[in-house]
Amino acid sequence: MSFPMDDSRPIFVQIAERVENDILEGILPEESQVPSINQFAAFYQINPATALKGINLLVDQGILYKKRGIGMFVATGVREIIVSKRKEQFYEQYVVSMVKEAHKLGITAEQLTDMIKRGAKEQ
């Protein structure tokens, strides 16, 4: 459950994304318990309130739910919710800006498609 922290983004957002990544990768399956707020705080050496803020983001989105006195758990069916959300973020963050830049450079849709295919082959 480790990943380098990114100083350009709030820590609580990064914690929420890490939990989402663990769900997507199957590390945290549906109905499994997530680490406690204190475990997150100790692991990342942050204030427990910061860890709680990240976890509460996921609770507000219905990705995690609380079992009183036990802890936080991954809700059923959330993998699809996370994938859908991440696809929309990908579109907004990468595709829109890429198309705008291509337009500025006079790159046609066909040329852009060819570039993407070439990039995919190199992976």
UniProtKB/TrEMBL annotation:
Q: Which domain of life is it from?
A: Bacteria
Q: Which Gene3D superfamilies match?
A: Winged helix-like DNA-binding domain superfamily/Winged helix DNA-binding domain
**Residue stretches making up the HTH gntR-type domain:** 9-77
Q: Per its UniProt record, what SUPFAM superfamilies does this chain match?
A: Winged helix' DNA-binding domain (SSF46785)
Give a yes or no for keyword DNA-binding in this entry. yes
Tell whether Kinase is among the UniProt keywords: no
Q: CDD domains, from UniProt?
A: WHTH_GntR (cd07377)
The GO molecular function terms of this record are: DNA binding; DNA-binding transcription factor activity
Q: Which InterPro entries match?
A: Tscrpt_reg_HTH_GntR, WH-like_DNA-bd_sf, WH_DNA-bd_sf
> What are the record keywords, sorted?
DNA-binding, Transcription, Transcription regulation
PROSITE patterns recorded: HTH_GNTR (PS50949)
**Listed name of the protein:** DNA-binding transcriptional regulator YhcF (GntR family)
Q: Which species is the source of this protein?
A: Cohnella phaseoli
According to the entry, what is the taxonomic lineage of the organism?
A: Bacteria, Bacillati, Bacillota, Bacilli, Bacillales
